[in-house]
Amino acid sequence: MYIGSINQPKLQFMKKLFVFFVLIATFLAAFSTSVSTKDLPLKASEIYFPIGKSGEMISLQDLSTIKLKDFETLTGKKMKLMDKIGFALTQKKLRNSINPDGTFNKKKTERYFNKMAEGDGFHAGGFFLGFLLGLIGVLIAYLIKDDKKRNRVKWAWIGLGIWVVIVIIIAASGAAIY
To answer: What are phi and psi of 105, to 5 degrees?
Structure first.
């Protein structure tokens, strides 16, 4: 008498249950370690941009107060009259959006730099929603509400567009789609 055949369904159930608990533990650990920076105020002295060919970094606080001649020496380029006027106007707007304590006083500016910190690059979920599910995937991307909705919807449309291009290429080449 073979005892293993009697316990086979129980063994398969235990394997599936083990895999399920491992996946749950992994997802809980991944989601519990995420840190939100939305509540922290951004400081202009902590945001740096590369300038010039050498890649020297300058903070937004320094950029808002730097003199035109110093900026030209940092970049290594001589600015034309219209560039100088544009630089002065942009510098004034930047100065007006920074509080005396170094934080931003405009929500739009803070939201822009938060987006830059999080990154608006490739969104795999949105891309595959559009690529694999088509218009239904794009609709699903619109229905999911979180802080990455805009990026997800954009990549869902891109995924759908790539799928359409592939279908057109296959149809134009005369190959049968099965």
So the answer is: -100, -5
How many domains is the chain built from? Answer: 2
- Asked whether residue 111 falls in the same domain as residue 125, the answer is no
Q: Is residue 13 part of a domain?
A: no
Least confident of 14-18, 21-25, 128-132, 165-169: 21-25
152 with 144: CB under 8 angstroms? yes
HSE, side-chain direction, 13 A CA sphere, residue 106: 10
- In the chain, what's the furthest Cα-to-Cα distance? 96
Look up the domain containing 136 and give its range: 121-173
The average pLDDT across 108-113 equals: 62
**CA-based torsion, 121, 123, 116, 106: positive or negative:** positive
Tens digit of pLDDT for each residue in 86-102? 888 888 888 887 888 88
The whole model's pTM is what? 0.41
